[in-house]
Protein 1
Amino acid sequence: MQLRVTAACALLSIAGLALAQEQDLSKVEVKVTPVSGSVYLLQGAGGNIAASVGDDGAVLVDDEFAPLYDKITAALNGIGAAPKPVRFIFLTHYHGDHTDGNLPFAAAGATIISQENLRATLMSDGQAGNGGSMHMPHKAVDKAALPLVSFDRELTVHMNGEDIRALHAPAAHTSGDSIVFFEHAHVVHMGDIFVRYGFPFIDVDTGGSVQGMISACEATLALLPPDAKIIPGHGEVANIEDLREYVKFLKDTSTVVAKARESGKSLDDMKKANLLGPWSEKYTGKFVNANAFLEMLYFSTARRAPAISVKH
Ligand SMILES: [Zn+2]
């Protein structure tokens, strides 16, 4: 019974979040923050958008919600002297708060690019979930909203004097995540592999795992220069130290859960023992609570860490 109540609450909180986002979109303003070089951060509702804007046009990483298309376009046109067409959009992962804008941007001529697992996920009905009590069904998207270009391990776009390079991070937040580097500006967009709203969501139902999240963060740290600016999926721009602290949190919490599991403890035992108590105060946010995060760790600790492919 206890579990049922928890499941219902988790479901309500996700539905509530989606609903709140839909209702508020008419009032949303898109905030533009210069990050470095040609790269800007755009924040409306949903996931963060990174944009390289320059003489060759605009390249986006993620595109938020379709109803925000006009506001996002106006914000982009406000950067620099003349309006810049969006020519390419990289997607960090398939979740609607990062990809719902695909349709209007594609209709306006942008070429959408993603890792091939992401494209496959968008093509069919499915379910996002933490492997336990959190579930959120999603429908196959309109064919016109699918990426026109997909890749396996990495792909680079060369525009505005930038090399904008997407690397696949296997089995991390989902099965089809990309981390997108703006090589010259020393900026990276990590999608929801790195978020700043508290306990992160790991979409275990779509092939995500905490080991993949850790591997992806460590591979990113190994590639970044010390002055790098890190755009998270949600929240404000971070630095190397912030990402290091986040990796430590992922490692410490997943180790505690793996050890409890090895010693024969059940998921219920861990919840009753408040295993993530030491992190609750700092990381409990509106979206994911300690028990929901515990489930993500529990259901992904049995897996092995996948290696991210990195070409130096
Ligand atoms: Zn997400």
Protein 2
Amino acid sequence: MFVIQQNISLKDYSNFKIGGKARYFLEVKSVNDILEGVRKWRETDIESNFQRKYFVLGGGTNVLFNDAGFDGLVIKNSIDEIRMEEDLLVVGAGVLMSKLLDYCVENSLSGLEWAGGLPGTVGGAVRGNAGAYRGETKDKIVEVDSVNLDTLEQKTRTYDQCQFDYRTSIFKTTAANEVITYIKFKLTKGKKEEIESLIEDKKTKRKLRHPLEYPNVGSIFKNVPIGKFTKEQIKQLSQYVKDDPFAVIPTAKINFLAGLSGKRVGDAKLSEKHTNFIVNLGNAKAEDVKKLIEIIIKVVREKFGIELEPEVMFVD
Ligand SMILES: Cc1cc2nc3c(=O)[nH]c(=O)nc-3n(C[C@H](O)[C@H](O)[C@H](O)COP(=O)(O)OP(=O)(O)OC[C@H]3O[C@@H](n4cnc5c(N)ncnc54)[C@H](O)[C@@H]3O)c2cc1C
């Protein structure tokens, strides 16, 4: 059963702890909740000039909500189901990655160990093809189900049709008006202890490297493919080249070399611990984060001639 709520603080749903209120907020636990909830919202009587827009929210670990909030309907995906269908693992898009990994350990399923410590939901990870430690969400996907929020049409896409690429998929481009509902993974049977130990290893690495003591949304910018650098620069930076999932220079390194470590606007700071994470020291506003992002982009452009591309999703 669903309830359409009003004036819900988005700060509480953002890992950044930043953002105003959602005018309308719908938490969905099934495909039916989406269909019925959106239909009901469309029947809601609002001013004639009101533009009906949607935003799909997962775990809020990769979004920056505006200080003014969101003047539309936020659909919080809480489809929280995991089940086996023959040899495929069917996962609701609202399942937390951590819960999915617990299930994998419990059932000795191998293939997602790279995601140890990755926050957020599986749906959010699919949309942005989240990845780390040489793994990407796409790697074990067979099919993805979704609902088009304009037509309420349900669709199933094969792996190829999802158009996965570095930190992107069709759900970020031409199918951005769809909410991912279920994902089918093909995992392999492995040894429980080995799977668990690989996951724990990634969690430990993250705790050591990431400034988890402050609210943040992970890496603010995508890493930069080495093809974007001049031959001379590649020679100078060769010691930093990382192959994940292809040859890149980590943006954390670029920001550090540009002298941006610890750069601050209001309570938004580029962390010294990981120089591709912006942390909220307490009362950061979305505007502070955006200004800091602009400064970083400008300084890196001037210093390296490189255009940094934000990974975080801005919600206006
Ligand atoms: C400490 C930390 C470490 C991180 N490390 C990594 C990392 O190693 N690699 C990496 O890639 N990312 C990383 N991230 C970023 C983030 O965790 C991932 O991108 C995550 O997969 C986002 O999932 P989410 O559910 O929180 O998505 P949200 O933040 O809620 O949403 C992100 C985007 O996905 C869309 N979305 C969410 N759910 C759905 C759905 N069901 N259907 C359609 N669209 C949807 C939203 O509309 C939004 O545009 C990190 C973040 C933090 C805070």
